[in-house]
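Handoff note, outgoing to incoming analyst
You'll be picking up this chain. Sequence as last confirmed:
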Amino acid sequence: MEGSLSHLLLALGSGSLIGCTLGLIGGGGSILATPLLMYVVGMRDVHTAIGTGALAVSANAYLNLAGHAAKGHVWWRCGVTFAIAGCLGAYFGSSLSKLVNGQSLLFLFGLLMMAVSFLMRQAKCQTNVTAKSLTIGTHGKTTLIALLTGVCSGFFGIGGGFLIVPALLLATGMPLINAVGTSLLAVGTFGLATALNYAASGLVDWMTAIYFIAGGIGGGIVGTSGASRLATHRNMLAQTFRWVIFAVSLYVLARSYSAAL
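Most recent structure output, in case you need it:
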């Protein structure tokens, strides 16, 4: 009984952190979900952790999308482009992922996290860009980036928000608060595609996913509210999140290095 209660509390707490992160910066939920499931909740199988995390993050992303949409933060055309183009890439990536050794996958995951922590320094926005000012060429560029992001999302079992937000800034120059809100449509869709693929192979812990989603509801409300209030301080938040990703990447690499060899 004590073990079950501990599992419940750890899953709810981890889910709250995931929901808050998604609501606050539109990404990071998935990049943290697998390490949290492995090292905090205690899930032993890497692929089950990936499938379970993808399902929970997908649900939380859609819930947070509703909150951002209500505040007018979502650029729907860009969001739909990322969701459709990236979904195909996510399905392909998740199929490829199941053929890779679990610990090797975790090690590669750590390397990707470290690379993203450096790439986030390059993300910039242009406050004069609006949804109506985007050109056909911009949407074509966005589609290509979405395909590549989707492959990475599915392969590593991540919603992709930590990639989508910088990618949207790179492709469109939209304000960061809009990139945060817009990214959640693609994050939810990527995660759903990955989760369905893993569920078909029996690699989803449904009860743990429910705990994660339940915890994420409260965290998402806090994160979305914080995103609106701190929009003018987004650079500070982005830099803080970049260092969080870097720190977690070091931990994942240290834990998986010897097993991956």
